[in-house]
Amino acid sequence: MKSRKLSRTRRRAAILGAAATSVVAGVALLPNWSAGAAVVDDPKVDARTKATFQRLADAVFTDRTEALVDGKQDNRGKPLTDGFSGDVTLSSKQNRTEDATLSSLDQRKERLAKLGEKYSKGSTAVTLDATNVKGRKAKVAVTETTTLTYEKVRGDEPKATGFQAHHELTFTADRHGNWQLTGIRDTDEGLAVNQTARPSVAPMVAATTTSTTPSAPKASTSYPGPANAKNFTASGLDYKAMATYAKQYWSNYNTAYPDFNGQGAGGDCTNFVSQALKAGGWKHVPGYVYDYTRWFGNADIQSHSFIGVNEWSWFAQNSKRTTSLANVYQMDVGDVLQVDFDKDGSKDHTMIVTSRSRGVPYLTYHSTNTYSRSVASIIASYPTAAYYAYRT
Questions:
Q1: What is the pTM of this model?
Q2: C-alpha to C-alpha distance for 169 and 188, rounded to whole angstroms
Q3: 223-240, pLDDT tens digit by residue?
Q4: Which residues partner with 390 through β-bridges?
């Protein structure tokens, strides 16, 4: 590595030291290690306990991020989550879950290295958004913001990739009022590089096929892809504007359009890509919202082809606005990648290419909000999925 990060033990000390100056709900993050709480029927979650919830969440997701940087689990220092005891801890079951997650991420890092991708360092921060307590259960909503710095393996990679993910953590109190983290649920679609669960995604609107519905061919994921240079002037589209739009709104959504993130299966991914394509010159085709040969979207109304994964594919092919690429590594700026995670024939997710480095496209997308993630990383995370690449 060109830049070596702090050891896990030193990082743990740094985080615990920084906690003293952090503030959650206006209260300093102070150590909360006492184990002698009195027996309580309905434990209360005060600001100090919320602060410790936040610190434990930060430790969990930092451990996951660092698994992609450090290499094999045996070579890492003690996980940050091991520094918690007493009033707020991981349950034994959740501890085993996190061990399995870190092991899975170690394997992902090895797959990434074989594809020519490494991270020189990682940074994760967690903010506490809301806490809901009922009896001995506490539901804690948090936002994770993670950045991974690319190690210069190829030489001209983007500086970094990153994402914002939302999670719901469940804490359960024992009879003494001590809290254990007993569950973590991703409330986005679960497409972050440090998440291991298979995405539970589906088309945003019901996909109904007929004998005349266009069917895109699958793209190969073998590296490198055969040469297929993109002509950036032939179509009259502004591909740079597409990339600029996606980079501008990857986390701060454009209020001129509805936000479908968290609104059920499908999320905001295709809506976001359609906006970027529109910014680069794709023109509206007005008509009936359910007609996949129509394409339009604004703050008030959107065709299903503007917001639906499969419907967008049907429109793109039927209108001849796209052609299919044989290999995902042929994609360039402004091209679109779709994924069918369970290979059931119904596409689940849409992303747009915002940069390219020595034969590797980098993607930006919503649900989970992500920028400059390499196609190699997507493939390493979902090696059994089916992929569809579109030249715009």
A1: 0.83
A2: 13
A3: 989 999 999 999 999 999
A4: 324, 336
